[in-house]
Recover the amino acids of this structure.
């Protein structure tokens, strides 16, 4: 899992207060950092589709944006979300009604960013749908696990006591083996559940990717721990 703390003192981090804003979004799982290679600035990839060069990230009146788009890598955006991009377009054209005619390249660039972010979110949505479909398959298999009939265990245990007390070895073994059979079936059942649980964990890790969702997961774990029954 990505360690947010390891980025705190990175030379690629922007200065305060922008650094704190970036770290907050990383810790909340709203963004993650992707490396571009040696000597190249890491990218801050936001859940809402925006991609900023990490060192250029700045905190505006509403959210993060890139202070400079010059020499930005392909796929980078000025804002971390579509709303910030649309707000800039609307504010610009309100202040400069002829802006689109005077600087069509700026309009094309901002619109391209907005549509690119929508495309990223669409692809992310598809990844979630695939995740949901595979989870449903695992859930169906879980529902089909029946497990053994354990209703005769107490009687089998009593049978062992009585047969052993009477010195009847064959009956003692017969009752004991009945307990073993149930135990073996229980072990097989638990392995099936475990395998399904680990498959779900793998699906979660795959869909999570480099995003840090530890805070949300811990909150949900706390709620589940309250329901633990001591198994």
């Amino acid at each position: 899992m990505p360690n947010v703390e390891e980025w705190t003192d990175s030379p690629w981090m922007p200065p305060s207060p922008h650094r704190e804003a970036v770290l907050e979004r990383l810790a909340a799982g709203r963004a993650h950092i992707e490396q571009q290679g040696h000597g190249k600035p890491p990218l801050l990839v936001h859940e809402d589709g925006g991609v900023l060069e990490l060192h250029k990230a700045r905190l505006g009146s509403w959210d993060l944006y890139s202070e400079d788009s010059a020499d930005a890598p392909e796929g980078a955006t000025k804002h971390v979300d579509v709303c910030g991009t649309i707000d800039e377009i609307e504010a610009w054209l309100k202040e400069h009604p002829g802006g689109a005619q005077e600087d069509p390249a700026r309009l094309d660039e901002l619109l391209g960013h907005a549509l690119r972010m929508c495309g990223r979110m669409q692809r992310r949505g598809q990844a979630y749908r695939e995740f949901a479909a595979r989870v449903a398959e695992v859930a169906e298999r879980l529902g089909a696990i029946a497990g053994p009939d354990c209703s005769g265990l107490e009687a089998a245990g009593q049978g062992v006591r009585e047969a052993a007390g009477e010195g009847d070895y064959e009956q003692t073994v017969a009752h004991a083996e009945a307990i073993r059979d149930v135990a073996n079936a229980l072990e097989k059942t638990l392995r099936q559940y475990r395998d399904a649980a680990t498959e779900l964990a793998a699906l979660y890790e795959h869909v999570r990717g480099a995003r840090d969702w530890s805070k949300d997961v811990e909150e949900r774990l706390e709620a589940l721990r309250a329901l633990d029954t001591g198994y």
Summary: Residues 4-118 form one domain. The first helix runs from residue 18 to 27. The CA atoms of residues 163 and 172 lie 5 Å apart. The chain has two domains: 4-118, 148-218.
